[in-house]
Amino acid sequence: MKTARDILNEMKIDERPARNGVFMTTCPDCSHKRKKKRDRCLAVKIDSLGVRWFCHHCNDFKGGQYFDGAKDTRTDWRGWARKATPQSGKRRPIGSLYR
Question: What is this structure's pTM?
């Protein structure tokens, strides 16, 4: 069984401390080619199932792995918090997604 640190090291993603398991870091695929090399464009989420990542600059470096070693088949890269919102047109307060 892999840990989150093992997966991040395997993908050469820099780990940053995060309280809720979501953090931004530099992309190992495109940041070294850019003018703003230190711009944090890679979103990483660590949850109970595994690790997911998505680069907001190149859009090519995306993926994920489960802790048991299988590839992540979830496709909702940008909609991590969108699932928790109600389907009706009513808007909820900002903090209500995390209660």
Answer: 0.67
